[in-house]
Structure formats: structure tokens, C-alpha cells
Amino acid sequence: MSHQNLTAIPETIVKGTSVDYKRTPAEFPANDGWTLTLILSGPPPNFTKAGVANLASFDFAITATETATLGVGNYFWEERAEKAGKKHTYDSGVIAVAADLASATAGSLQTFEAKALAAIEA
């Protein structure tokens, strides 16, 4: 798997683009039987992705097709480690999903204020 040399999920991802990163949780190593799952919860739909064990690390490869299904907005995220019925939060935070500029139509990403000003001026 090729990585973007990321060691954590980025603060922002763009719909329709791929995101690859590697996590190496010392307290929850993959080669000790732990699993690590990424969970996103925010605008529909929620999203879950299992990390792939790679020695003691976990590789996450989120495809462009998968990110294209996410709604634009902020999601809470968590990486959850599990082994033998035990569940632990490894890391968590908030991530922004941004619109895909390549597929946006002219004017579709204007702010409400910009649209209102154009309507007033017209």
C-alpha cells in the first residue's frame, strides 16, 4: 500500500479524493492481536473503516469512492482499538469534509451572504 506519509488522519479531507495513513499505537499493536477501526459520525452517512494490520501498525486506505459518499461538514472521528472483548479509544477528534472543487458547478459553493448580495444587487 502506498501512503501519503501521514501518521494520522488529516484535519480536512476532500470528497472524492483518497486518504492513506498509518497508525502505530504502542499500547495496541496489531501484531499482538489488536484491531483498530476508524469511525466517523456527522452529516449522513456515518463511516467506518477497519485498519489493515501491518506488523505492529495499521494501514488505513480510504478510497476516493468512499470519500465521495460523505456529506460536506464536520464529523467527530474516533480510532477504536479492540481485542478479546476489550474496547479502547486510541485517538479522537473532529475532521472537516470539504466539497470536491473539481465536480462543483459554477456558483454552487458560494456562501449564503455572497448569494444574497448578488440577489440584492440584481
How would you describe the overall organization of this protein?
The protein is mostly beta strands and 122 residues long. 12% of the residues lie in helices and 43% in strands. The protein contains two helices and eight strands; from the N terminus they run E-E-E-E-E-E-H-E-E-H. It has helices at residues 64-68, 112-121; strands at 12-14, 19-23, 35-41, 47-50, 52-54, 57-62, 73-83, 86-98. A five-stranded mixed beta sheet has the order 1-8-7-3-4, with no helix packed on it. Strands 2-6-5 form a three-stranded antiparallel beta sheet. A hairpin with a 5-residue loop joins strand 3 and strand 4. The chain is elongated, with a radius of gyration of 18 Å. It starts with 11 loop residues before the first strand and ends with a helix.
- Beta content comes to 35-45%
Q: Give me the strand/helix succession.
A: EEEEEEHEEH
Major sheet: arrangement of strands: 1-8-7-3-4
Compute the number of strand runs. Answer: 8
Radius of gyration: 18 Å
Q: Approximately how much helix is present in the residues? A: 10-25%
Which word captures the global form?
A: elongated
Q: Whole-number average pLDDT?
A: 92
Low-confidence stretches: none
Largest β sheet strand count, sense and barrel closure: 5 strands, mixed
Q: What are the salient characteristics of this protein?
A:
122 residues, mainly beta, five-stranded mixed beta sheet, 8 strands, 12% helix
